[in-house]
Design goal:
4-stranded antiparallel beta sheet, 13 strands, about 190 residues
């Protein structure tokens, strides 16, 4: 394996969660019938709340978000910077979300991440040319981010996808994609 990609994998392990890639390291990606098959086992979890009066997100018996005060709007900058840091090797059965939307309505929902991601495959952007993916690089653990916005819940997946060539000419280290992709969306 190219030393550059080994170093990149080590960096991803450190920056996307202390466990990142432990069980995913042996998994191999492939393109099959024009579809990228990139398995994952472990993940990092994060949650954010926007346009709510209060918000609580309970994941693995820990409050990832526990805010009793109003939150601001969800901006493009927020979307571009979604991240996760709560490492996990397996999916809990549900994430419990309790919040008050801007209109004062109280909500209490359970989101089953295991069901949403039962395929065990990374979600990737629709505009990704799967023939440009460097499948020889082991997949890293993706970030899974739950976003509460007013009356809606969306779950994003953000995975590091190595490419065969840089996306931007003249930018040698732009040979990856790391886009947030909606895996689940529901308005209540």
């Amino acid at each position: 394996m190219d030393l550059k990609y080994l170093a990149m994998a080590a960096a991803m392990t450190v920056t996307s969660g202390c466990h990142s890639g432990i069980k995913s390291w042996h998994m191999k990606s492939k393109v099959e019938d024009g579809v990228l098959k990139m398995p994952f086992y472990d993940h990092s979890f994060g949650a954010r709340c926007f346009d709510t009066l209060r918000c609580r997100v309970l994941y693995e018996n820990a409050y990832i978000v526990n805010s009793g005060s109003p939150s601001g709007p969800f901006t493009q900058r927020d979307r571009d910077n979604l991240s996760a840091s709560w490492g996990n090797l397996e999916f809990p059965s549900v994430v419990r979300v309790s919040w008050t939307s801007k209109d004062g309505t109280n909500h209490d929902e359970k989101i089953n991440l295991g069901e949403i991601f039962r395929s065990g495959m990374v979600r990737y952007p629709a505009d990704l040319d799967v023939n440009d993916v460097k499948t020889s690089v082991p997949p890293s653990a993706p970030n899974i981010i739950l976003v509460v916005e007013d009356r809606a819940i969306r779950v994003y997946m953000r995975a590091w996808i190595s490419l065969l060539r840089p996306r931007f000419p003249g930018r040698e280290y732009s040979d990856f994609r790391h886009d947030p992709v909606i895996a689940y969306s529901q308005t209540f």
